[in-house]
Design goal:
Blueprint: H1 2-12, H2 18-45, H3 48-64, H4 68-80, H5 85-98
Helix pairs in contact: 2-3, 3-4, 4-5
């Protein structure tokens, strides 16, 4: 949400709250690190389905914080691990949603 907050501040000429931005960035980095650990754990100890789910969770979080370019990269990695047709369609719809 940091990206969206910055855009809104520029659009409406609001004063940016640097403390809020730092806090949001810190929370985002902590969550991303946690999700990366889950991906690594799934790759080492679990099956392909769990790896795919971990990759999808990471890319969905990136979408939630408006990091679309990075999310597309991780969605491609998720697509490589996706076997089922329904899951592939879900990824296609996610690409469409991103634009």
């Amino acid at each position: 949400m940091v990206h969206l907050y910055r855009q809104l501040c520029e659009l409406y000429s609001w004063e940016k709250d640097t403390k809020l931005i730092e806090t949001m960035e810190k929370v985002n980095q902590q969550k991303l690190a946690e999700l990366k650990e889950k991906i690594e754990d799934a790759e080492k100890n679990l099956g392909e389905t769990e790896v795919r789910e971990s990759l999808l969770a990471y890319s969905e979080y990136l979408l939630g914080i408006s990091s679309h370019d990075e999310a597309k990269k991780w969605l491609r990695k998720t697509e490589e691990k996706t076997v089922g047709l329904g899951q592939r369609l879900d990824l296609i719809f996610t690409y469409i949603r991103i634009g």
